[in-house]
Every structure is written in C-alpha cells, then in structure tokens.
Amino acid sequence: MREGLKIAIVGAGISGLYIAWKLAQKGHNVTVFEKRSVVGKEVCSGLFSERIFNFIPESKKLIEKQIDYCLIHFPKKTLRVVFSKKFFVMSHAKLDKLTLDLAISAGTQILFNKQITISDVPKMTSEFDRIIGCDGAVSQVRRFLKLREPRFYVGMQGFAYQKNNDNYVDAWPTPNGFLWKIPRNGETEYGIMEKPENAKKMFDQFLRNHNIKLEITKAAVIPQGLIFSTNKKFALCGDAAGMTKPWSGGGVAWSLTAADILLKNFPNFLKYQEEVKRSFLPRIIVADILTKGVYFFGFKIPWLMPKNYKIESDFLVT
C-alpha cells in the first residue's frame, strides 16, 4: 500500500482518468469508479487544439487529420475563422483509452461496472480521504452535495460514409447553438448542439434540406455553467462541474486545464475552487459577450462583419 492519501474518483472520462494518472504518479492510492464496462466517450466530435499535447504528449499518435480553419455560415454571410493553435481531429474514445493505460501503469485501480449513486457517497466519505466527482453532466456527486444543476444542451452527431478530404470544418449557427460538418477518415460527421426541445427537430430539418442520410446517430447531454463545491473533502471537475466552452460545448481543454489547477493545489480543494473561479469566470464572461455579439451581427446586420477572423480556439481570450 502506498503512503499517500486514499482518493476516490467517480467517473472514468478524460478528466477523471487524467487526474487519476497524475495523482497516482505522486504516490497516492487512487481508485476510479466507472459505471460502464469500458471507457471511451461515445458522443464527441474529437476536435482538439495542439494544447492537448501539453497534457497528454502520447496523444500525438492519435491524430487523424489537421484542421486549418472553420467556415461559419450565417444566412447572408460566411465567415472564415483560422485558429492561433493547430487543430486536429482525433478519436475521443481512443484518447480516453490511452489515458486509461497511463493511469493504470501509474498504479491507479479502476473498478468497472460500479455505478455510484447519491446513496453510495456517504460510505465513500469514511473510506477515502478525498472524493473527486468526474461523473458527467448528471453527476451523482454534485447532487449529493446539493449543488445547483448546470444549464443543459443536447449534442447530436451522426456519420455519413462519404469521403471528405477537406482541411476545414463547416458550422451553421442556430438560435441557441450551431450545426456542424467535420471531415474524418473515410466519413463525414454532422451534428448539432442546441436546447433539448429544439435539437432533434432542427437536426432532422437540416439533414432533409441537404439530402443527407446518416448511418449512425448518437446524442448526449452538454452541461454549461461552472459549479463549485465548498466542501473540503469533495471536488468536481469536467462535465460534472459544467466545464464546457460557452460557444461550442467542447470540454476537454477546459477540463484538463482545471485538472491541472486541482493537481497544483491538491489536497486543498478550496484553493482549487478559488483558482478555477479566478481563471475561468472572466473568460466565460468575455466569451459569452463575444459569442452573443457575433450571433447578433451575423443574423441581423451581417454586412458590418469582416469576413476573416483569427481566434484562440480553446479560450477565445488568454
């Protein structure tokens, strides 16, 4: 038995596995509880900036394609957005499996088919020194702590077996989100992020309008709105804490950035929460204003907008 603290991590997604890997490397006794029998996020477009290599250098071998820019199609104007950091298409599921192997090699214990519910958490508090909730959008750890729920959106994606050698992605803004088209190896991905009551109807209409037939369609919940615990023994990270980009719903870069803040301050979870607030809240406010501004001008007065932009893809502002 190691001499470090006993740590329970609920959820074997990218943030839970990354934290487990790094804490195990530091000599802590880490146990990850995963409700499924395997790891690998099922619904994710797998668009990552080169920032991912700072967290998981081994992920370079997962690159499928480089993306050079994005075309944003408003009804009367198309914008061309290039990224200040290189952008790549990868399999999120393969990234999770890679991080799982790293966590296990560092000494993490992974317990599969272990569904943790609210009623299980009190027992864990007596068995573990720290508990980290990385259990997704409908986090049981978050609900045990009686914290507020995030705003929920729906992400839907499907695949058409059509070759696509493009080096860019397409996006079509919707009232509360956007539709997308992403080139992948041997196929093309289409998807939508929207409010739950609108997503399927808008996606189906888009597919009909473009005469697109999808072979596989999946859906997932996307949480938004940072949530903080004030409990010294508990921390939230990833989707459980609502850590997704306000403009795209992507969460990997944000989750791993927050995970590094947690690791830096470990085992002081209150310091972690304070630093996350200082780091993320100003970015969220600015990003929200910029996103609303682009949507307003794009839909209402598109002729005032320049055609070309360059952005920092993970945070918009640094």
TrEMBL record:
Gene3D superfamilies found in the cross-reference section: FAD/NAD(P)-binding domain (3.50.50.60)
SUPFAM superfamilies xref list: FAD/NAD(P)-binding domain (SSF51905)
InterPro entries: FAD/NAD-bd_sf, Geranylgeranyl_reductase
PANTHER family noted in UniProt: CONDITIONED MEDIUM FACTOR RECEPTOR 1, GERANYLGERANYL DIPHOSPHATE REDUCTASE
Identification of the protein by name: FAD dependent oxidoreductase domain-containing protein
